């Protein structure tokens, strides 16, 4: 007997299948009728207004100085479109100076995010946005030390800045230093917690936003070594981990908050796999095997939520595909990938689950896409230190920070 | 932006967002035909604007707001008409959904839930919106959405004999 969640998921699929989408021409005809109605109404209104003005203006009297009532037209940002992808460019308002090249951008939801510059040699303050990247200001936190920092968004809009000293914030405004507890095995991923992978051992570790590192997950995925873990659970609460079984790429998924794991071993590419990442959208799951340089060795697609995978792309010996960063399953069923400084475009899409990719013209150059807690960030936009954020991979907002 | 670019942008938006918006609006209508009609109306209104949606920051959010407003306006009109014309008559369902494998029980059970429960279930499970976005869309705190989801699941399970509920953590 299926549980309610399964029943709801099936019902959702049935609902989406039932939705009929008429050609846009049908909607255009409807728009034409709306325009006609409006012009008739506007004509009638204009006649009435003219009548009122004719009486109220009292043309036989001397007028005073004219009053300006019109406002300036709203400033409109340039928009770059191609292949169904849209990037809204900078608005004419000020760009926040990050005091260094953008190293990391993280969003906890569509509005709240932080941007960090690399520490060279000192770490500048983080920049914070509360409006989806349209405006930025100095955050009340600054990494210390010269080591690597990692900015983590947690469920509920909580934050943790992991550096030589961990700092946390319930909402991104007030930060305090975190004193992690003595590490203890964790039976499950509790509400509001995240997973991270530690190298070189490949242990999967549970983290909390306000206490930091809690300890290894008791039941580890059945991988020889874990190399990657999703920054957030999927919509149905599944946690994905990528790694190796022997030398084969493999993925592991837990649907019970880390208490048990199901592992699928994937076809082995000719060149050695270094890491495996997973991108999901609903029941569509894409696993990607990468070499040490991050280039793609294999793409594996699952249409049943990860129960079974089909190998859709396997690179030949020494012929890794030069896609960098995370693949993005788009809402219309295509798969988006980026080729850093690729020609004729950085932006490529696949309509056959990764078997082949076609370039999208008319979009600015970019270097890579990285999944964040709440969406995706594209780096190296316009071949510079620009970034853009998208909750879905289709609609991007260039960030007003540099 | 030229007219051709605007037309192309609208084509792409229509292709990318239509089904998603219908699923979201279905939360408020419980009638798929009406949800489709309302979303088409929203796109028609966008097309009827002189600049299309070129001056709108978030076209999908704009379309969703328009669609939800259309639903509310129609609902108010219908309520008024009901009050005037149908006060003493038994209310009959005018549109019977076609029977389907998942409709007969679950979606009927869903339609019978109080609107506040039904909205969160459809927005979260059907429209695939995370809890915080459902909260933002309905203008209620995140905790309220989680509580309604939990109670709605219990209510649904009660209406669907033989289905067990599994307490799962709603994604934030």
Percent of residues of chain B in helical segments?
55-70%
Order of helices and strands of chain B: HHHHHHH
Tell me the structural class of chain A.
mainly beta
The averaged pLDDT of chain A comes out at: 85
Give me the count of strands of chain A. 29
| Largest interface pair | A-B, 59 and 61 residues
Query: If classified by CATH, what would the architecture of chain A be?
Result: 7 Propeller
Please report which band the strand proportion of chain B falls in: under 5%, 5-15%, 15-25%, 25-35%, 35-45% or over 45%: under 5%
Which CATH top level class of chain A fits? Answer: Mainly Beta
| Tally of alpha and pi helices of chain B | 7
Question: Given the structure, what is the number of helices of chain A?
Answer: 2
Q: Can you lay out the helices and strands and say which pair or pack?
A:
The complex is a heterodimer of chains A (402) and B (172).
Chain A: H1 4-18, H2 24-56, E1 79-82, E2 85-88, E3 102-107, E4 113-117, E5 127-129, E6 137-138, E7 150-154, E8 158-162, E9 167-169, E10 176-177, E11 193-198, E12 203-208, E13 212-216, E14 225-229, E15 239-245, E16 248-254, E17 262-265, E18 275-281, E19 284-290, E20 296-302, E21 310-314, E22 324-329, E23 335-338, E24 347-350, E25 358-359, E26 368-371, E27 376-381, E28 386-390, E29 395-398
Parallel strand pairs in A: 2-29
Antiparallel strand pairs in A: 1-2, 3-4, 4-5, 5-6, 7-8, 8-9, 9-10, 11-12, 12-13, 14-15, 15-16, 16-17, 18-19, 19-20, 20-21, 22-23, 23-24, 24-25, 26-27, 27-28, 28-29
Chain B: H1 3-29, H2 32-48, H3 59-85, H4 103-111, H5 115-126, H6 131-138, H7 142-159
Describe the protein's architecture and organization:
Chain A has 402 residues and is mainly β. Chain A is 12% helix and 35% strand. Chain A has helices at residues 4-18, 24-56, and strands spanning 79-82, 85-88, 102-107, 113-117, 127-129, 137-138, 150-154, 158-162, 167-169, 176-177, 193-198, 203-208, 212-216, 225-229, 239-245, 248-254, 262-265, 275-281, 284-290, 296-302, 310-314, 324-329, 335-338, 347-350, 358-359, 368-371, 376-381, 386-390, 395-398. The N and C termini of chain A lie far apart (54 Å). Mean pLDDT of chain A is 85; it is low at 47-75. Chain B is mainly α and 172 residues long. Chain B folds into two domains: 1-96, no CATH class; 97-172, Orthogonal Bundle (Arc Repressor Mutant, subunit A). Chain B has seven helices and no strands. In chain B, helix 1 crosses helix 5, helix 5 crosses helix 7 and helix 6 crosses helix 7. The longest helix of chain B is centred in the first third of the chain and has 27 residues, at 3-29. The model of chain B is unreliable at 86-104 and 163-172 (pLDDT under 50). Chain A: InterPro entries: WD40/YVTN_repeat-like_dom_sf (IPR015943). Chain A: The chain crosses the membrane at residues 39-57. Chain A: This is BNR/Asp-box repeat-containing protein.
